[in-house]
């Protein structure tokens, strides 16, 4: 499984458990990793 998906899943689980501070951080990190990986994939494809 990709890293961004694991981070988002863990973030959602923590959000459900009530740990909002940690959950929001993990969700944002997961989204950031997803965006960076998409940009890198597009750059590689452009070459």
Structure characterization notes:
With 47 residues, the protein is an all-alpha fold. It has two helices and no strands. It is elongated. The model has no long low-confidence stretch (mean pLDDT 85).
Major β-sheet annotation? none
Please provide the ordered H/E string of secondary-structure elements.
Answer: HH
The N- to C-terminal Cα distance equals: 26 Å
How many individual helices? 2
Q: What sort of overall outline do the alpha carbons produce when their principal axes are compared? A: elongated
* Uncertain residue ranges: none
Mean pLDDT, rounded to whole units? 85
**Structural class by secondary-structure content:** mainly alpha
Provide the β-strand percentage band: under 5%
- Compute the number of strand runs: 0
Helical residue percent?
over 70%
Q: From the alpha-carbon coordinates, what is the Rg to the nearest angstrom?
A: 13 Å
Keywords: Membrane, Transmembrane, Transmembrane helix
Organism: Isoptericola haloaureus
Protein name: LPXTG-motif cell wall-anchored protein
Transmembrane segments: 28-46
